[in-house]
Amino acid sequence: MTTPADVPDVRDPEQPGRLLTIERDALIPLLRDRAGEDFALPVAACPGWTVRDVLAHCSAALTRVAEGRFEEGVFSPESNDRDIADRADWSDAQVVDELERGMGAAGPAIAGAGGRLDGLALGEWVHAGDVREALGEPGAYGGAGLPDALALLARITRERGHVPLHADLDDLDEPLRLGESGGERPPGRFIGDGPTLVRLYTGRPVDGVPAFELAGVEAKELNIYG
Fold it and tell me: How many CB atoms lie within 10 A of CB 61?
């Protein structure tokens, strides 16, 4: 796969929704083929949450976005726990059904939010990777959505003035520039694959991933959720 070295900072409003629908088409069939006990597996990236909890959180968040319901405290840990509790009596299939609808319906709302919700789309895609990893499925934090995910990540880190990094990725033909120093700090350097870079930027475990190099910056500085 290829993408330009410097992803343009001009926002593509369709990109977050595209990322979600790409992942929907891959993840939902996988979930429908899993046994009920698989939904009770723990998710390492989300301590205390099971696969079902992560899916319920994602389906609730995307439904909320699609319906434009943003009450006070929305997306806080307390709000997330309430969303999961509200679905405690649902079947696993009902949770997956809501997730499927939300991954398709949230795109237009995110597109019209002017960038304010773009990070949420990236976060839901990352949670899909969390679920894949918990289920022992390949493709966690990668797959067909990776180019859009990397482009979103690069733009978001630059908009936030995050620590600068030049990434030489196995998945891309040209280096990817993330973060922005304003000339105050030389960029760090990453050499490795795209899914590992996503893991570093989202605080996910990197045990057992393909070998990578990171210089000029500490892994904890890259975490956009830290």
Answer: 23
Helices (H), the chain: 15-32, 51-67, 77-86, 92-111, 118-134, 146-159, 194-201, 219-222
Whole-structure pTM value: 0.93
> Of 6, 12, 10, whose CA–CA distance to 174 is shortest?
6
Both tokens assigned to 191: 């050499």
The one-letter code for the residue type at 79 is S
pLDDT in tens, 162-206: 999 999 999 888 899 999 877 778 999 999 999 999 999 999 999
Q: 90: burial class by Cβ within 10 Å (0-12, 13-18, 19+)?
A: middle
59's CB contacts (< 8 A; 6+ apart) are 87, 95, 96, 98, 99, 102
Q: What angle do CA 38, 82, 33 make, to 5 degrees?
A: 20
Which amino acid is present at 116?
R
Give the model confidence (pLDDT) of 66-123 as tens digits.
999 988 878 899 999 999 999 999 999 999 999 999 999 999 999 999 999 999 999 9
